[in-house]
Each structure stands twice: as structure tokens, then as C-alpha cells.
């Protein structure tokens, strides 16, 4: 039986072949935007360009908090030291906002962030400032740990997310396993039911998340390349479910990331053999 493209052994085989061909080495670590089995994701599209040898470590559902754990950082540092990537791509933070909470079978962390609907308040005022500040600090510190651990090996490319859609759509991985929805049940639990207002709240949320990443680029200008993806996807056509783009949506995101690598790291794509 042929190996699936997302199988770790198959990924390592492709990486070894691309290294032998002298392609530019990348190291990727992240969440489902880099590892989405139902259809090609960002890193799949990068591989399809034929310019890169990509050592892939991402895992669907991963959190940036887990990526920054001592155990994971030790692995990342060892691989970065051995493989000598030209740059490192990180994708993380989304799952930190939507992990399940113990007290419910269907509500996610965002439930704790949201406040009950109040027609006299703005979208921003429906986010608890205390809870939001704590989560943004948690995400920022996890990224700082990753940057401190990896920034000496290669420039690090990080990206935000485009404006998510509270559609209630679930992700179907193989026809049997499903995940989500991540957003709509929590909003409804707070009586936030107007679709337009739901999207306004998510704009505030995503803008706040991107501000964290923008600040990281300012704080680490020689180590971090931040890619702003807001406005990339058509909200009516380019989302497969609440937090994952369609196949073509991922392609558009990949093009922005690849363009940022080429622009910020000129001459990065050169067919050359690297020291093993």
C-alpha cells in the first residue's frame, strides 16, 4: 500500500530526496495550517513549488504553548543544529485560543474570553480584558521561548491568521473523524447570535493576536519575519470550516509566505549542496 503524503516516514523520504538534490532547506513546526490531512495545506504547497527541502515537524492540533515546552525545544534545537535550515517557519497560536475546556464537551477556551451579549456594548467590549491579556501574554511568552531557542540557527518566519468565520462547520479528516466547531457554540452560549456581530468580535480577536506577532518582529528584528495574512481569504469562498481554509485558500496563504521569504531573504532559493 502506498504511503499517504502526510505520513511522517513519507515526509522524511521526500526531505532526504530534496536534500540530495541540493534544494534550500527549511524547518517547519506548527499546527494544522501546516498539517491538515483533508487537503493540501501551506507546507504541502511549499513542497509542491519544487524549490525547498522541508524538514517537517508540525502536528495538527498543536499549541504554541506545547511547541515551547522544554522537551519540544530540545528536539527543535537538535534538529536545527543538525539540518542547518535557511529559515524556520512557525505556525501557532490558533489552537491556544480554541482548546477544549474541562467543564464542557463542546465549548472551547474562547468561551472564557467572551462576555454575555449586551446591546449597549461594542464588539471589543464583549472580550474580557483580563482573560484576553493573560492569553496574549501566554502566547507571547511561548513565542519568545521559541525565538530564544531557535533564532541563533536561522531567521524565523511567523504568521497571523486571517479573519475566522463562525460558521459552525466541522473538520472531517477521513469521513469518520471530525473536529470542531471551535467558535459558534461558545458564542451562542453567551447569546451572541447575530452573524455580523460575531464576525466583528472575531476581527477584534484576530487583530489582537496579530498585534502580538507584530510586536515580536519589532522586538527581534534580526530573528523574526512576521507575515500578516489578514485580507488574504474571501470570507464567502476560501474557508472550509471555522478555522481552516479551503485547498485554494491554503494556496493563497502559501504564496504570501513564500513571497515574504524571497523578499526578506533575497537569494534564498539557490540550488546548492549543503554540508551534510
Please tag this protein with its features.
single chain, 276 residues, alpha/beta, two-stranded antiparallel ribbon, globular
Task: Compile the SSE list and pairings.
Layout lengths: L7 H13 L3 E7 L11 H7 L3 E5 L7 H4 L2 H14 L3 E5 L2 H5 L11 H4 L15 H22 L5 E4 L11 E2 L5 E2 L4 H6 L5 H25 L4 E4 L19 H18 L12
Parallel strand pairs: 1-2, 1-3, 3-4, 4-7
Antiparallel strand pairs: 5-6
Helix pairs in contact: 2-10, 4-7, 7-9
Report on the architecture of this protein.
This protein has 276 residues and is an alpha/beta fold. It has one domain: 3-Layer(aba) Sandwich (Rossmann fold), CATH 3.40.50. It is 43% helix and 11% strand. The chain contains ten helices and seven strands. The chain has helices spanning 8-20, 42-48, 64-67, 70-83, 94-98, 110-113, 129-150, 184-189, 195-219, 247-264; strands spanning 24-30, 52-56, 87-91, 156-159, 171-172, 178-179, 224-227. It has a five-stranded parallel β-sheet with strand order 2-1-3-4-7, sandwiched between helices. The protein has a two-stranded antiparallel sheet with strand order 5-6. Helix 4 (70-83) runs parallel beside helix 7. It is globular, with a radius of gyration of 19 Å. The two termini are 31 Å apart. Mean pLDDT is 93; it is low at 270-276.
